[in-house]
Design brief:
Layout: E1 10-18, E2 28-35, E3 42-43, E4 52-59, E5 62-72, E6 75-78, E7 82-86, E8 92-94, E9 100-101
Parallel strand pairs: 1-9
Antiparallel strand pairs: 1-4, 2-3, 2-5, 5-6, 5-7, 7-8
Length: 108
């Protein structure tokens, strides 16, 4: 898991997804995130019951790469990467303005 919130120096975003209808839609999901340019992904805990996850401990005024990974038995399928701009106010703005849709590693 990534950094833990520390007072007013960090931010959080809520990542929402819609499971794919065909293939391996996923029975559980987790979010991976990293600062743009970093090679290492941070991973949230697995979510089995909701279609969203709060990602916290992000740096303000930074650009992040975010993806959702669907788990279905032995299969794990990441979504396409979305760029998220965490403004100086700490509010995440997903440039595409819509949830991540999972379908065989492609956005729908």
């Amino acid at each position: 898991m990534g950094p833990v919130p520390d007072g007013n120096d960090t931010s959080a975003i809520q990542v929402t997804w819609l499971p794919a209808i065909k293939g391996h839609p996923g029975s559980a999901f987790y979010v991976q995130y990293r600062l743009k340019g970093d090679k290492t992904w941070h991973t949230t805990t697995v979510e089995e019951y909701e279609d969203r996850k709060l990602v916290y401990g992000l740096e303000k005024d930074a650009l992040y790469e975010i993806r959702v990974v669907a788990i279905d038995g032995e299969h794990a399928q990441p979504s396409l990467i979305k760029m998220v701009d965490i403004g100086v106010t700490g509010l995440g703005r997903i440039f595409a303005g819509r949830p991540l849709l999972l379908a065989r590693g492609r956005e729908r």
